Structures are given as structure tokens and as C-alpha cells.
Amino acid sequence: MNVAFFLIPKQDVVYLKIDSTMRQAIEKMEFHRYSAIPLIDEQGCYKGTITEGDLLWKLKNTPGLEFHNTQTIRLTAVEQHTQNQPVSINARMEDLISRAVEQNFIPVVDDQQIFIGIVRRREILEFCSKALGKLESYEPNDM
């Protein structure tokens, strides 16, 4: 089993460019009902994940910043408190599982660190659940 089996390709993933604004991030999160979105640079490299919490902390800790002027703040100016570490497309299943414990989704990159998609915790858990179901229904006399 490898990462590609679980991969949701970039074309099907909601993401933002790192130079997007806070307002764009808030609106995209609201529209898609997401609490975190991957960030990429102009070359397509993965640069982190912006979360609702990151945006709220920036709003709270920036005097004079209100929703109506969030379009003036670039995401490069928003500290990322959670570091969603990516995996290589060549990563092992163990790498996915260890990251899925801490992350709702795992960004996937190629050998040049280009963002190529994500693996969601949901798909990993569904796969493991099905695998466990097969083990539980196995009887030693079935051989």
C-alpha cells in the first residue's frame, strides 16, 4: 500500500497561494466549511497550512484589524501555529498513519517539494476499518 492509493489530487483540493489575503482565506474556509487549507507558493511548492485558529489569533493580536480590512493582510504575515508536515509521494503507510494521528489531512509532495495533493485522515481510517473487519471475520478454520 502506498500514498498514491489514498491521494486526492491537487486539482480536487481546495488550497490557497501563500500571497492570498486573510479575507480570501476566511471566505474560502467558510464556503467549503473547512477549518484548514494548504498553502502553496508561486512555484507550486507546499508552504504550510493556514487554520481558522491562525486567522483568529492574527485578528485578536493585531490592533485595528477587523474583518472589513482583512483584505489588506497577506497570509505571509499570519503565523502558522500548527505545522502540517507533508509526506513524499514515496512515503510508507507508517508515515501516513503517524501523521494522521495529529493532522486531519496530510499534504503530499513530489521530490521537488511540489504540492501534488492530500491524504485525508478519513480515507486512512476507512481503509483500516475495512481491514480490521476482514481480520475479525477471519476464522482459523477458513483455511
- Name the assembly state: single chain
For the terminal residues, how far apart are their CA atoms? 24 Å
Strand content: 15-25%
For the sheet with most strands, the description reads: 4 strands, mixed
Q: Taking Cα atoms only, what radius of gyration do you get, to the nearest Å?
A: 18 Å
Average pLDDT score: 90
The number of helical runs is 5
> What strand order characterises the main sheet?
1-7-6-5
Helical percent range? Answer: 25-40%
Spans of 5+ residues with little confidence (pLDDT < 50)? none
Give a structural overview.
The chain is α/β, with parallel strands linked by helices. The chain is built from five helices and seven strands. The chain has a four-stranded mixed sheet. It has a three-stranded mixed sheet with strand order 2-3-4. Strand 6 and strand 7 form a beta hairpin. The longest helix has 16 residues, at 121-136. It is elongated and about 55 Å long. The mean pLDDT is 90.
Short description:
The chain is of the alpha/beta class and 143 residues long.
Question: Top keywords for this entry?
Answer:
alpha/beta; elongated; 5 helices; four-stranded mixed beta sheet
